[in-house]
Amino acid sequence: MAVPRSHPRRESLLVREKLVRGLERGLVAREGLMAHGRGEAFDYLLGEATGRHARKALRAAAAVLLLAERPIISVNGNVAALCAAEAVRLARAARARMEVNTFYGDGGRRARIAAELERRGARGVLGANPESRGRLAGTSRSRGAADKEGILAADVVVVPLEDGDRTSALKAAGKQVITFDLNPLSRTARTADITIVDNITRGMDELARLCREYSARGAPALSRIVRNFDNGANLAACIREMTAGLRRQWIA
Ligand code: ATP
Ligand code: MG
């Protein structure tokens, strides 16, 4: 379906089309469409723009990634459909490996997501090889799969659009968790160390850019950025940003 250039919601409709194409190509799970719908509602409240507090979280996330020993970028179907090239750029800028991480579905979908990342230039994508699969403690077999060389061995994991149970399991396993989540109230948003309340269609490339920008900085400067970041306070500020936007548009 062609989206008219003048349509006021053109951007958002084009993103939906990308997801539907991802579903048809066997990358996206049906459940992924609903997760996107929930994210869209919060993006509406944000004015569909990267806010001041998302930028603060992006800077802290870039610093944590550059300080990491074994960082991993986790990719699910929605990430593969919406920003595969940007995620590959982030992995390169952060010197991180990539791991396919799916909540629903079978190995076929994991293999297709890995192939999509490799088509965009990624090398050695983890998560699609059954021999290297382990499990995060405290999760069920189907929901807790993780790669022994990847997430299970990592110190820092970027898990965009992650489920709350898995995020808790990652924290219990001692990982530093960075997430993208448009819903500042979700369990993942509240459990992660750094929650970027922004759409991955905008934020992923910005995080890659910040990693490149900060790559020449030393550890003390990066550690200072991390120390000055408080995720709970930042989430509260994101919620205030949303309510202030609503008030400006509808109540004032
Ligand atoms: P939780 O399990 O953490 O409580 P949930 O069950 O409400 O969250 P999930 O489907 O588990 O939701 O996780 C998907 C999350 O990703 C949702 O919070 C949703 O708002 C968010 N999300 C969806 N699409 C995007 C997007 N394009 N960019 C950023 N966040 C998104
Ligand atoms: Mg959930």
From TrEMBL:
Family matches, as Pfam families: PPS_PS
Binding site for ATP: 16, 38, 181-183, 187-188, 199-200
Reaction catalyzed: (R)-4-phosphopantoate + beta-alanine + ATP = (R)-4'-phosphopantothenate + AMP + diphosphate + H(+)
EC number(s) stated in the UniProt entry for this protein: 6.3.2.36
InterPro entries: PPS/PS, PPS/PS_sf
GO MF annotation terms: acid-amino acid ligase activity; ATP binding
Superkingdom of origin: Archaea
Gene Ontology terms describing biological process: coenzyme A biosynthetic process
Keywords for the protein's UniProt record, in alphabetical order: ATP-binding, Coenzyme A biosynthesis, Ligase, Nucleotide-binding
Entry keyword annotation includes Chaperone: no
Primary role: Catalyzes the condensation of (R)-4-phosphopantoate and beta-alanine to 4'-phosphopantothenate in the CoA biosynthesis pathway.
PANTHER family from the UniProt entry: 4-PHOSPHOPANTOATE--BETA-ALANINE LIGASE
Family: Belongs to the archaeal phosphopantothenate synthetase family.
Protein's recorded name: 4-phosphopantoate--beta-alanine ligase
Phylogenetic lineage: Archaea, Nitrososphaerota, Candidatus Cenarchaeales, Candidatus Cenarchaeaceae, Candidatus Cenarchaeum
